[in-house]
Amino acid sequence: MRVIGLMSGTSVDGIDAAVVEITGDPARPQVTLLAGETYDYPADLRAQILAVCGGAALSMQQLAQLDEAIAQAFAQAALKIAQDHRPITLIGSHGQTVFHRPPTDQLGYTMQLGRGDLIAAVTGVETVSNFRVADIALGGHGAPLVPPVDVALLSHPTDDRAVQNIGGIGNVAFLPATNRTETFAGFDTGPGNVLLDLAVAHLSQGEKTYDADGAWASQGQIHPNLVQQWLAHPYFQQTPPKSTGRELFGVDYFQQCLADAAGLPAADLLACLTELTVLSIVQSYQQWLPRLPQQVLLCGGGSHNGYLRSRLQQHLPTTRVLTTTAVGLDADSKEAIAFAVLAYWRKHGIYGNLPQVTGAREFALLGEIYGVAGNSAVIA
């Protein structure tokens, strides 16, 4: 089956699209990447999404318009990447997260915009979307959702692996070697690129959106006491299952970091924020994983940050820090591939969540299916 996966993460840096061929055992499929691209959001749409993620109020009419604009952008991304790879049987669209509330004394709540029914109608391809809500209804966090795909695609016969996504928010999937009987683990580790991107935009007066290869941060000096002050945040002490987003580590948190770092050179601020991401990852491994893995496999935008990677390797001297590309799964397309697989599982009636990761009471089928009848999409 030829499937398109669509994904835009908390960095809101564009729509990742992947075309994959899925064959073999549906539960542990063989996945071949045929094409992977990132399509930029129109600048005004990206600005609106970031504003909403930052807490800007919308009327119901504005919310509907934003939902439809995101769906149109996702549909166009699917049409573009499908041009040389037809026929496409299925689309899995994560959508764009604009709000996430982890469960506490009440059910969690999450909102991903980008209507699946509209994507199906525009593309003429059956579409699965809204993956997180079924897990949340069962008391889970609805996040992270990619670990079961990592288990299927990246487990190693003899080595323990930690698959570390560094998007706007970081998350990890611990994959014990398949010759062991231990369970899997996974959770959001904390901020990934989100604070760094906010800092770069602030420091460059909006001329830059990210620190390419960590070059700017690499010129700075790390101030350990400041980093440890930030690491005292309660999230880092919270026991998994746990998830987070821009609601916690967003503009308000960055402003506090900026105030804490008053008087420091710009490069020092970036070096300290990079170290916060790195140490939040390392300390979460030390606290919550059964043991340190032999390999850490990076994916997401942060996998291109050479300075961040070098700091992570320095703090994990006995672990080999690689990217998923190095072991055969494209690091830039991995999240989009994951939602293609999750859509494929939904169509085959295969559970898509890991309750030990998300905290849900039981396994669940993830995603709502929108079929195509004539020129209109109907929920199935």
Automatic annotation (TrEMBL):
InterPro entries tied to this protein: Anhydro_N_Ac-Mur_kinase (IPR005338), ATPase_NBD (IPR043129)
GO MF, one annotated term: phosphotransferase activity, alcohol group as acceptor
EC number: 2.7.1.170
Keywords of the record: ATP-binding, Carbohydrate metabolism, Kinase, Nucleotide-binding, Transferase
Signal peptide interval: none
Biological or metabolic pathway of the protein: Cell wall biogenesis; peptidoglycan recycling; Amino-sugar metabolism; 1,6-anhydro-N-acetylmuramate degradation
Gene Ontology biological process terms, A to Z: 1,6-anhydro-N-acetyl-beta-muramic acid catabolic process; amino sugar metabolic process; peptidoglycan turnover
Catalytic activity: 1,6-anhydro-N-acetyl-beta-muramate + ATP + H2O = N-acetyl-D-muramate 6-phosphate + ADP + H(+)
Enzyme class label: transferase
Residues reported to bind ATP: 9-16
Functional description taken from the UniProt entry: Catalyzes the specific phosphorylation of 1,6-anhydro-N-acetylmuramic acid (anhMurNAc) with the simultaneous cleavage of the 1,6-anhydro ring, generating MurNAc-6-P. Is required for the utilization of anhMurNAc either imported from the medium or derived from its own cell wall murein, and thus plays a role in cell wall recycling.
Record-stated family: Belongs to the anhydro-N-acetylmuramic acid kinase family.
Name listed for the protein in its UniProt record: Anhydro-N-acetylmuramic acid kinase
Record organism: Romeriopsis navalis LEGE 11480
